[in-house]
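User: structure tokens for this one?
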Amino acid sequence: MAKLAVVFALVTVLYSAEALLCHHCVSLDPKSLCQIAEEMCEPRNTHCIFVNYPKSNIHIRRCVPFSECHILEETKNATDFHTVCCDTDLCN
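Assistant:
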């Protein structure tokens, strides 16, 4: 039983060491300020994203899968928003 507890503790530590940490804030109301928090990303969410719609003063910061970064990059030229997609802790 003690060995099982040690294995569980090691897996928990390794998961925590591997998980990405991103800023999290979704402000869809231009009149309200976003309270930025830190978010531990799920394993499938390998990137942090920052999206800014300057005309509407809307900001989004959160964990995303890489595929979402790719989709935003493809549509960036057709819209008036700024995006940053990155893969290091708190890079957004």
